[in-house]
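R.M. (postdoc): so does anyone remember the format we settled on? I'll just put the structure tokens first.
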């Protein structure tokens, strides 16, 4: 390893990969990526942090839904003009297509999406229509391997090389320090550490005095039902996204990451096990699942949404030795689910390792009430979802790092230090994370002339 590069990138998730692809097109001579996880062919989804860490980041075993609607999957519309955003989206989509993403687009506007929009209103739900290209989990790894091959020999990629510190002199970035103590000099540093790096970002941002605002923490459950119950929605929208303001608390509650015929999986961040999900493009289970998340933003004096989310997740892990599963009927009736009750359930879990238990011991009343109210509202447009046989897995938590205050080019107030992707709190999905990498890299290319 030399210890000097023009550009160094922290992480190898979609944001970082697209930054590297863009820099390569501009013929930057020396670019290095430092990733704490393993190379793509060495990653195994079921092994601890490997779901989130390594080449491809959280995207490697994701559902691979590429959201083609600019308003979903992040906040880039607050940084660039609508025209620039559409151009970026098109460029990013073209790159995914060139590496093998399928041509088919789901959820295109039609009479059916309009009818669903109107019907949702009657149930106090806002339906957010969006177009999606669906890779499917089994196609994410091969696509990421193709990108990896395209960058081979052009970008220096170091795996199992976690970055400890960002080195700064006179408010200008000058390199990185790795956990093993090695230092790397660089003219530009791009940080794309993802949600898994939320705590790392929080601590670095605090130490370097970079301005940031607290992000919400989203806490909820993964809901699983027979695919037929949700087919009315998934046939029209593939990923049906709804927003609801709860009756009792007026909290923002939303559906997220709907996976038709998919499977529920666990997600490990450090010592915490939470729940997530994905689906294949060919292999089908009998169920469809999605999450219901309640957003909370803390202001004063408490400013640690990550700590709050981890506390709730730890409680579920303490009681359930991992993820807890409960039938909706048991939750409503105030009793725990048991193995016997789950065995008798019409919906058979796609995550059989979850422990039957009682989510009311874990989730605050505010969250539980809001989730139940949203399920009741959803039942008006997709009858059968508020059934005692609906399964709830808990908890699902989305820790977002504090949102870093960034200008449109995504450079912090430390010269030549850029933050991109989910780790900067500005994106929440594959497309916008990838687009953010392109924005930072384009700015660096411009400055290099
Ligand atoms: C199961 C699952 C399903 C999903 N499905 C979808 C979907 O269908 N559609 C969608 O749009 N989004 C989906 N997502 C979300 C999507 O994967 C993320 O939004 C996207 O990967 C974010 O990209 P990123 O580059 O910002 O961060 P990440 O992909 O999280 O990558 C960050 C990388 O940085 C590395 N890193 C962190 N800290 C350090 C450090 N200190 N030193 C070195 N390396 C570090 C990590 O190991 C990781 O590899 C899913 C996520 C999961 C987990």
């Amino acid at each position: 390893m030399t210890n000097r590069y023009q550009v160094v990138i922290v992480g190898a998730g979609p944001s970082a990969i697209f930054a590297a692809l863009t820099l390569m097109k501009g013929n930057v001579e020396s670019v290095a990526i430092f990733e704490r996880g393993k190379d793509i062919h060495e990653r195994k989804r079921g092994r601890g942090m490997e779901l989130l860490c390594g080449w491809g980041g959280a995207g490697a075993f994701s559902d691979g839904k590429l959201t083609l609607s600019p308003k979903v999957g992040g906040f880039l519309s607050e940084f660039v003009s609508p025209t620039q955003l559409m151009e970026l989206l098109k460029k990013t989509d073209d790159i995914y297509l060139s590496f093998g993403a399928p041509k088919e687009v789901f959820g295109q506007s039609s009479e059916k999406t309009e009818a669903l929009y109107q019907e949702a209103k009657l149930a106090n739900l806002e339906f957010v229509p969006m177009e999606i290209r669906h890779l499917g989990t089994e196609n994410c790894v091969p696509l990421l391997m193709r990108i990896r091959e395209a960058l081979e020999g052009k970008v220096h990629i170091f795996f199992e090389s976690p970055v400890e510190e960002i080195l700064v002199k006179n408010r200008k970035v000058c390199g990185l320090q790795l956990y093993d103590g090695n230092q790397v000099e660089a003219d530009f540093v791009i940080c794309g550490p993802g949600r898994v790096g939320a705590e790392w970002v929080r601590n670095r941002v605090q130490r370097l005095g970079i301005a940031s605002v607290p992000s919400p923490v989203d806490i909820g459950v993964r809901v699983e039902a027979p695919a037929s119950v949700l087919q009315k929605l998934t046939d029209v929208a593939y990923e049906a996204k709804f927003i609801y303001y709860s009756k009792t608390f007026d909290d923002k509650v939303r559906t997220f990451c709907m996976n038709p015929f998919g499977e529920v999986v666990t997600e490990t961040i450090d010592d915490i096990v939470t729940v997530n999900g994905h689906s294949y493009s060919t292999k089908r289970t009998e169920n469809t699942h999605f999450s219901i998340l309640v957003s909370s933003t803390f202001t004063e004096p408490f400013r640690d949404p990550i700590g709050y989310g981890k506390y709730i997740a730890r409680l579920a892990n303490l009681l359930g030795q991992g993820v807890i599963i409960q039938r909706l009927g048991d939750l409503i009736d105030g009793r725990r689910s048991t193995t016997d009750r789950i065995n008798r359930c019409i919906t058979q879990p796609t995550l059989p390792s979850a422990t039957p238990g009682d989510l009311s011991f874990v989730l605050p009343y505010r969250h539980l009430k809001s989730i139940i109210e949203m399920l009741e509202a959803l039942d008006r447009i997709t009858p059968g979802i508020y059934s005692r046989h609906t399964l709830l897995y808990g908890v699902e938590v989305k820790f977002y790092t504090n949102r870093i205050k960034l200008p449109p080019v995504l450079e912090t107030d430390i010269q030549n230090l850029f933050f991109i992707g989910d780790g900067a709190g500005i994106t929440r999905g594959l497309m916008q994370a990838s687009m953010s990498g392109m924005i930072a890299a384009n700015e660096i290319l411009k400055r290099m002339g």
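R.M.: ...and that's the designed sequence above, right after the tokens. Also worth knowing: The first strand starts at residue 4 and ends at 10. The longest helix spans residues 430-448.
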